Amino acid sequence: MTTENNMSSTPAGTARRRLWRVAWGLARNDFHARFAGSYFGILWAFAQPVATILLFWFVFQVGFRAAPTADGVPYGLWLAAGLTPWFFFAEAWMSATAALTEYSYLVKKVVFQVELLPVIKILSALFFHLAFVLVLVSLSLSLGRMPTWHLLQLPYYGFCMLALVLALGSLTAAVLPFFRDLNQLLAIVLQFGLWLTPIMWPVTMVPERFQWIFKFNPVGYVVDGYRDALFGQAWIWQHGPTTLGFWALTAVLAGAARLIYRRLSPHFADVL
């Protein structure tokens, strides 16, 4: 019986591995296609985030003379640690949302699993994010902030962001073919989200009785986690209720995305 089960599961396992290899190859091609034909290539991927960090740093630290944090972290470095996961979140969510319309020729192929299309766009954004994390760690070292054991938490918080953006991206990707204005709406949501998430300001600036509202923001959980990992401020288990709330919300979003995909997938080929 065991031998028969192994033999019957082997073709399915091989097919899944082949499908993931295709998805990985498409993600790499998508990443390279962004900069094809440009003289500076991948450097453009860093230009906009770095320019944004420098702009905010100049406005807040030079213009408003923002002081270092209570832990002595320079504001520019503290800001970069918050913007790094946000850049990945915003880019991955926007690109995952448009995955079905961009790869409409694959949607019409019965043999291709449409659910993987948002994954392709998220993996493409992940390549850049990992490089930017290395730049951030190097910047921290150059400013004299030596890493602690807390840095081992960084992969966990990166996985948290992956899980969140996959759930959200899959949900909005399924809806976009039927509601094309979603892209514009999502851009507005991200614009508000940048300022409502404690990225450029600490949550302690909010009156204590209102801070619980901002703890519902799942991106804020990851942003705080990146800072905890880089600056040795806290361990994962010190955020027990927030961690449970983050994973509960992510699980609800993933379940909703799966349900909507099942309901709408038979009609994708008709509207694309």
What does this structure look like?
By secondary structure, this protein is an all-alpha fold. It has one domain (2-271). It has helices at residues 2-33, 43-63, 75-97, 99-102, 104-107, 116-142, 154-175, 182-196, 211-214, 218-231, 240-264, 268-271. Helix 1 (2-33) crosses helix 6 (116-142), helix 3 (75-97) runs parallel beside helix 7 (154-175) and helix 3 (75-97) runs antiparallel to helix 8 (182-196). The longest helix has 32 residues, at 2-33. The model is unreliable at 1-8 (pLDDT under 50).
Which labels suit this protein?
disordered N terminus, globular, mainly alpha, 272 residues, single chain, 12 helices
Give the low-pLDDT segments: 1-8
Report helical residue fraction.
Answer: over 70%
Order of helices and strands: HHHHHHHHHHHH
Silhouette: globular
Q: What is the number of helical segments per DSSP (H or I, 4+ residues)? A: 12
Number of domains: 1
Strand content: under 5%
Average per-residue pLDDT, rounded, comes to 82
Return the structural class: mainly alpha
- The count of DSSP E runs of length 2 or more, i.e. the number of strands, is 0
CA distance, first residue to last residue = 45 Å
Largest sheet: number of strands, sense, barrel closure: none
